[in-house]
Amino acid sequence: MLLGLEDIQLAQARISGRVHVTPVMSSTTVGDELGVRLHLKAELFQKTGSFKPRGVFNKLLSMDPVGLSRGLVSLSAGNHAAALAYGAAAVGAAATIVMPASAMPSKVAATRRYGGEVVQTEGSLLDTCLALQRERNLTLVHPFDDLAVMAGQGTVGLELLGQVPDAGMVVVPVGGGGLIAGIAAAVKLQYPAVRLVGVEPQGADAMSQSLERGAPAHLEQVETIADGLAPPFAGEHTFRHVQRFVDEIVRVTDAEIIDAVRVLIQRCKLGAEPAGAAGLAALLAGKLSPSPGSTVVCVISGGNVGLDVLKHLL
């Protein structure tokens, strides 16, 4: 099943007032160097610091009250964890989130501040999450492979089309694929000629491998500084949407991501986390070929980076 435009429009109406309409900011000097009119969709200014509350709220506000009352469970490296804790508290539900033992301390602390219970593990996040779901009779809120979550993320696409109606290319970071799946559906179902490009870390390229194999791939190992783009598998739903709506997926190195983080801070005054900078990294590294003079929108998906990590990157 694929999302329809009406699913994303309904999500936009449902979450209105719960999330910010984030700004689009132009970057003239960086765009001039790239030979394009560059715009940055600043999802790092979203509640909890990333795009994730959009999908969380659409899911929670469309759920059966019985499912909410049982309590919620999910898995996350950090941004979905904070968003689910925040969203659950807003609707009066309890949330438990499984996070890796190596998760950024700042992201663990943020999740707890929003009211979430954090369970950290050295093992499989998914296995631990499913075990907790069974043991406690909790309701799973998947971080990306859920149509309601994807429709919520698609509201980014509806917004940016209204803000940049002449967009010729939209560049989106890719982890599990929920963000690009939603945005691509929202854009392509209205303007099929707009080019949709996803960007993955070279060391966490589950979606690229999925497209090469023709089926969702599971990675044996993930290695990237972009923890927000590091799920070791692509979703069934997200894979089908990427197949249908996305024109191209490219890979970037961690060094290229770090360069983009620096440019965003120094030139654009945006404190993006590595995952949020991946799209710009592909442009700066010459991995993409937009038409000269065309309008490019780059989604800066999050800004949750600890000061210790930022110091190391810079």
Brief sketch in words of this structure:
With 314 residues, the protein is α/β, with parallel strands linked by helices. Helices cover 46% and strands 16% of the residues.
Descriptive overview:
- The protein has 314 residues and is of the alpha/beta class.
- The chain has two domains: 5-51 and 146-313, Rossmann fold, CATH 3.40.50.1100; 53-140, Rossmann fold.
- The protein is built from 14 helices and ten strands.
- It has helices at 5-15, 28-34, 52-61, 65-69, 79-91, 105-113, 125-136, 147-163, 178-188, 206-213, 236-245, 254-266, 274-284, 307-313, and strands at 24-26, 37-42, 72-75, 95-100, 117-121, 139-140, 169-173, 195-201, 248-252, 295-300.
- The strands form two sheets. A six-stranded mixed sheet has the order 1-2-10-7-8-9, sandwiched between helices. It has a four-stranded parallel sheet with strand order 5-4-3-6, with helices on both faces.
- Helix 6 links the parallel strand 4 and strand 5 (117-121).
- Helix 1 (5-15) packs across helix 3, helix 1 (5-15) crosses helix 8 and helix 9 packs parallel to helix 11 (236-245).
Kindly provide the radius of gyration, computed on alpha-carbon positions and rounded to a whole number of angstroms.
Answer: 18 Å
Main β sheet profile: 6 strands, mixed
Shape: globular
Helix content: 40-55%
Number of helices: 14
CATH class of the largest domain: Alpha Beta
Please trace the helix and strand order, writing H or E for each element: HEHEHHEHEHEHEHEHEHHEHHEH
Strand numbers in spatial order across the main sheet: 1-2-10-7-8-9
Distance between the termini: 43 Å
Return residue spans where pLDDT drops below 50 for at least 5 consecutive residues: none
Number of domains: 2
The strand count comes to 10
What's the overall average pLDDT, rounded? 95
CATH architecture of the largest domain: 3-Layer(aba) Sandwich
CATH topology of the largest domain: Rossmann fold
Which class do the helix and strand fractions yield?
alpha/beta
Strand content: 15-25%
